[in-house]
Amino acid sequence: MYRPTRIFTRRFNFRSPHRDVERLPALTDMFNRHHTYLRISLTERCNLRCTYCMPEEGVPLSPKEDILTTPEILKLATLFVNQGVTKIRLTGGEPTIRPDLFELMTGLSGLRNQGLKAIGMTSNGIALKRKLPKLLEYGLTSLNLSLDTINPFKFQILTRRKGFEKVIESLDLAESLGIQQLKVNCVVMRGVNDMEVVDFVQLSEDRNLSIRFIEYMPFDGNRWNDKKMVPYKELLAKITAAYPNISKVQDDPNDTTKHYRVAGFKGNFGFISSMTDHFCGTCNRLRITADGNIKACLFGAAEVSLRDMMRGGSSDEDLLAMISAVVKKKKPKHAAQEFIPRLTMPSSFAPLIKTPFLNKAPIFRNNQSMRSQSSDARLSHIDPSSGKAKMVDVGDKAVTKRVASAQSIITLSLAAFRQIRDPNKPYHLQDGVANKKGDVLTVAQIAGIQAAKMTSSLIPLCHPLQINKADVDFELRETGDSGEVIITATVSCQGKTGVEMEALTAASVAALTVFDMCKAVDPRAVISGIHVIRKSGGRSGSFEQNGS
Ligand code: SAM
Ligand code: SF4
């Protein structure tokens, strides 16, 4: 999910030695940014699986009791409003699936007499339509609806779920109910939906909509790469070519969007250019995660648990001191800017492309996975007394759901790569591109799935498992004078032992199959980077580390 890299949770010293710092208002940082906008995530769950946001199997969820309760959210909201927050946005996960949403809205609207001016929500629109009238009644003032395509077929590919019509119905209803601010959020990805931007702008011709194109951002496991990210200037040029008569609209001081309008159109459009032209200098946002951590920056690593403080009996003063300390530590600009040199300096990026995973620190999701990296870790397949190989006895282990994904990369010459890929089509429309031996990706996919099922016969000490599902997925990336096929294999089972080996075997054999089918054109193709990118289930817990 849209949950930026969290490396560890850090505790701050909240007594500053500097007097000046102590004199600053709690929500003002060292760069004189006043934080008047609070985004609260209501849940980690979602009813879609947008490819740019979460993996197919969803994100590892916190236990229910770790999620903030409605009274806890309201307590924090009150604290923030009393310190000057005037706008609260509810987000997620998908906020509309929180069961006590109306109760929460009632509580929040009670904060209006304490200075809260606006309550917004960002939603995917799937479960929104029925709830919308009541939400407006309870004081919802703005709605950002996420919609990345106006093609129902593509919607299903992008979100991995059905429901396009429901989103459109929510959009239509929101417009007819006359909500104060209605925006459509569209994350633009090259070769996926960038060809639709002009159609999106067209939507604003006779509708009072603000269409916002968001630059695709890197988050855990979403396989971001700079080629997929379309800089906003490129989109603006494309839109200007279709509608030469556009003009800049005056933006609000803390607006993250650069707005434009086509002459004569009722609505407008804009760009959220977090990647190529960040707006950190005027950032006035703070975030609370569903499990109660405060984050001063979407991309920031450090989080502090306000939930633990509240449940540990901390006073409002202590909470405020902590919030103030987090705000004061806010950096002048966000860390994802480190990706920017790749966009502007292709020569320095080139070595990264060959072995991209080597350049990224692994991202551990919890302490358990950190522990399994420690020096006490021992090889489970070696008998400690005899030093001989043995099969692990899993008789006493619990049967749990286990999922693992592994990745491999095969780098091919452009000639071979182009036999797999039709350069004029996005990946999801690549079917049927065949070289002399047939459709390479389909054969490699079947080979990988077969291999997953046969893992225990290939790897001597692996247990035979009843696999529930094995998937092999490909991402194609042209990188100058070569092309990469990035293979991701995901295997799940209900069992006593993990499926990492099955996923690794599937990713390896799929890569070998691509090699076999392309070797006549490129006998020097290189297979690299075979590794587990995420696993969940079992006693050793979950982890996730960056893939390509
Ligand atoms: N589920 C709700 C929704 O989709 O509107 C709210 C949560 S979602 C994480 C909030 C916004 O983040 C959505 O507009 C979504 O499109 C955007 N988003 C998610 N992943 C993104 C990414 N990798 N890059 C840019 N925007 C992203
Ligand atoms: Fe992520 Fe929102 Fe899509 Fe759900 S609907 S997967 S939270 S972007």
From TrEMBL:
Protein name per its UniProtKB record: Uncharacterized protein
Species this protein is from: Entomophthora muscae
